[in-house]
Amino acid sequence: MNFYRKYLLIIGLIGIGGLASCSSPEMDYEGQVNTNRPSQESWNSEIYLTKLGVRNAVVHAGHMEQYNDRKLTIMNEDVEADFFKDNEHTSTLFADSAVVFQEKNIMRAFRNVVVESDSGITLYTERLAYDPETEKITSDTTVKMTTETDTLHGVGFESNTDLTEWKILKPWGVTRREMKK
């Protein structure tokens, strides 16, 4: 009888182990979606940020992870975004990584962020947000902006994507231009 009990115990454990291994790796033990794994993952991909169906930005990344449960896309390799206004290219953003919040298409770029406008203005910062609804880029941290004649620094920044209408909230820097009074 002792042998029979051991046999049943071993068969039962094997059966339970087999059932446990059949569960989906995307689900946790309560049947909820596992937020540690992306819903989709891709390499060398593009996403479009639009306003009322009109393309405002095309974002390319070497690696993307989409999380449907959190409604966000993480781009963590060679991020490059081309911005458009009235279907005309205005500037290009480069960053180490970025996140797109899918509900509003808001993008936040991080680390070594550079925006080069087609008019020759360049912006450097560590953090930048883009909102296609307002068509503005903003930063809440230190920025450096360069033109042919100026180098300006500051904390806090807001501009359109072609960097023609900008403001630095707490500026400092050097200019060779005559200032209007």
Which labels suit this protein?
181 residues; mainly beta; lipopolysaccharide transport protein A fold; 56% strand
Structure description:
It is a single chain. The protein has 181 residues and is mostly beta strands. It is built from one helix and eleven strands; from the N terminus they run αβββββββββββ. A six-stranded antiparallel β-barrel has the order 2-3-6-7-5-4. Strand 10 and strand 11 form a beta hairpin.
Map the helices and strands.
Elements: H1 2-21, E1 40-51, E2 54-67, E3 72-75, E4 79-85, E5 88-95, E6 97-101, E7 106-117, E8 122-131, E9 136-146, E10 151-160, E11 166-174
Antiparallel strand pairs: 1-2, 2-3, 2-4, 3-6, 4-5, 5-7, 6-7, 7-8, 8-9, 9-10, 10-11
- Average pLDDT reading: 82
| Class per helix and strand makeup | mainly beta
Unreliable parts: 16-33
Which architecture does the CATH hierarchy give at level 2? Sandwich
The domain tally reads 1
